[in-house]
């Protein structure tokens, strides 16, 4: 009788590819063997590798790797959507970032990818009432990666944050699926208001470097926000906005700006 048991590749092609790339990376650069074995090849699953990587990056004298690893392991078992989103983010990074040539790179090296996965752990803790632990993770993400995402913010899957330096996402912000943003983006408030005060970003939106989106406003799906813009008002779907303050300067120009990453406009 034929063996009908699915292969590892069929069960988890993302993890299978990461392991293949890890083997090749060690063959090419043996000095990386310790890091790559500890971070990838020592583990039986993507979830295990991700939990290990998160614990090593976020640990401090205040919180050990072991405690953080146990938190991550528990989160990934309790909420399968977390590792599913991590896979989607990894593939999005590979597809959209021209500097990403292997699935291995975001897991090991890219702070935008690592920061969003750490945020996801913090958000899971926040949703389960463990706010102080969530704040601790927010603090460590800010200290280690230069990315400040409030754990109460709601962020979809397929997220790509390129370079990721000085990203700020406020407490009541909502970010849809398949969104791309570059460094120094702020999704912030406009003052000291204490209610729903941060932007709502639709699916497929591209937010250029240095753009500031401020207030409880809605950015329609598949919109493109030009670098350096300050957006203070609602934006309809599938538009390009630019300027300070930002104004509509044209159509988005494609079905999904976040995927094409085309930041030019006429």
Looking at this protein, list some descriptive labels.
15 strands; 266 residues; 5-stranded parallel sheet; alpha/beta; single chain
Please tell me about this protein's structure:
By secondary structure, the chain is α/β, with parallel strands linked by helices. Helix content is 42%, strand content 15%. It has helices at residues 8-11, 13-28, 33-41, 46-58, 65-78, 81-96, 104-108, 111-127, 131-145, 257-260; strands spanning 147-149, 154-155, 160-161, 167-169, 174-175, 180-181, 186-188, 200-201, 206-207, 212-214, 218-219, 224-225, 230-231, 239-242, 247-251. The protein has a six-stranded mixed sheet with strand order 3-6-9-12-14-15. Strands 1-4-7-10-13 form a five-stranded parallel sheet. It is globular.
How are the SSEs placed, and which strands pair?
Blueprint: H1 8-11, H2 13-28, H3 33-41, H4 46-58, H5 65-78, H6 81-96, H7 104-108, H8 111-127, H9 131-145, E1 147-149, E2 154-155, E3 160-161, E4 167-169, E5 174-175, E6 180-181, E7 186-188, E8 200-201, E9 206-207, E10 212-214, E11 218-219, E12 224-225, E13 230-231, E14 239-242, E15 247-251, H10 257-260
Parallel strand pairs: 1-4, 2-5, 3-6, 4-7, 5-8, 6-9, 7-10, 8-11, 9-12, 10-13, 12-14
Antiparallel strand pairs: 14-15
Helix pairs in contact: 2-3, 3-4, 4-5, 6-8, 8-9
